[in-house]
Specification:
Strand content: over 45%
Helix content: under 10%
Strand order of the largest sheet: 2-1-11-10-9-6
Number of domains: 1
Mean pLDDT: 91
Low-confidence stretches: none
Shape: globular
Number of helices: 1
Number of strands: 11
Oligomer: single chain
Radius of gyration: 16 Å
Largest sheet: 6 strands, antiparallel
Structural class: mainly beta
Length: 177
């Protein structure tokens, strides 16, 4: 579902493409002011690594957030936790939505629509998996990242309003900054 790259142009570093119910979406870093950013979310105990692909000029546009839980339920060295958590494998989705029910290596997919409504996989029992197909260490702007290719299908929920995400694919970055 990624459009063909015209000859002479570089493929985007990051992108996400999917079908949301019957609508196709495609966001790519460097296209229409979209850019990817990484994050680390720490509680007093748990840690997860996040990637957001969002329009940096106008935050009223729809965007994706994808997070992967740490490989263990305690925090360790940040870089070691990233290296031990981001690897090629098939992952379960985080369920149920409860900060006290941390599942190591589980994934959460969020779709925030243009109205600011957050649809999330973490409140829905899933029948599909999130697949990390490849992982490569890359340097971008002098910083080290894990570049991953992914495929995913899931159900997203916002207070009973359900979206079926299918044919999800992308290239994402995860880092410690």
């Amino acid at each position: 579902m990624q459009p063909p790259i015209p000859e002479g142009e570089q493929a985007p570093l990051v992108y996400i493409t999917a079908k949301l119910n019957d609508d196709s979406v495609y966001f790519a870093g460097g296209v229409d002011y979209y850019a990817g950013s990484t994050s680390v979310f720490d509680t007093l105990i748990y840690r997860s690594f996040g990637f957001t692909l969002q329009n940096t000029l106008d935050y009223a546009h729809s965007y994706f957030q994808i997070s992967i839980n740490n490989y263990q339920s305690v925090q360790g060295d940040l870089q070691n936790d990233l290296d031990s958590s981001i690897f090629a494998d098939v992952r379960h989705y985080q369920y149920p939505h409860n900060i006290n029910h941390f599942i190591p290596l589980a994934v959460t997919v969020n779709w925030i629509d243009s109205g600011g409504i957050k649809f999330s996989s973490d409140g829905v029992e899933q029948v599909h998996f999130f697949s990390i197909n490849t992982v490569e260490d890359v340097l971008f702007d002098g910083k080290k990242y894990k570049e991953v290719t992914v495929e995913f299908d899931c159900t997203l929920d916002a207070d009973g309003d359900v979206i079926h995400l299918t044919n999800g694919k992308g290239t994402l970055l995860f880092g410690v900054d």
